[in-house]
Prior knowledge:
This protein has 135 residues and is α/β, with parallel strands linked by helices. It has two domains: 1-73, 2,3-Dihydroxybiphenyl 1,2-Dioxygenase, domain 1, CATH 3.10.180.10; 76-134, Signal recognition particle alu RNA binding heterodimer, srp9/1 (2-Layer Sandwich), CATH 3.30.720.110. The protein has two helices and eight strands, in the order βαββββαβββ. The strands form two sheets. It has a four-stranded mixed beta sheet, covered by helices on one side. It has a four-stranded mixed beta sheet with strand order 5-8-7-6, covered by helices on one side. The longest helix is centred in the C-terminal third of the chain and has 12 residues, at 86-97. The chain is elongated. 27% of the residues are buried. Residues 2-128 form the PhnB-like domain. It holds the Pfam family 3-dmu-9_3-mt. This is PhnB-like domain-containing protein.
Amino acid sequence: MQFIPYLDFDGQCREAFDFYAKVFQGAITFRMTYGESPMAGDMPKETHGRIMHNTLESAGGTVMGADGPPGNKGASGCVNITVDSEAEAERVFKALSEGGNVTMPIAETFWAKRFGMLTDRYGKAWMVNCMKPMP
């Protein structure tokens, strides 16, 4: 079994996933707009440029997402990213927080070498984690 986060957007999916591809050093492996889909004729014209499905693959896994109908604010939740080094935690946290809001600055905690929480410029909540060895 594999768990894959699926992020909802309101017209910002393309921009957000292009940004995430840079942050996570990954690649967009699939992207389709509503206008490119077989259902295009059944969809309102204003949705044709919106993303129906998007997949980002990186060495660490997969993230998927889409634009919902206009006005859709998406589901709430938080994506946890666990990295192998403190330097990578700092890099990812800094990149994701640019233009966003830091809710817990990245720092050492009792469970992690580095842990921080933020909401990115697209309104998505993230936790960045570099775990300490467990006893």
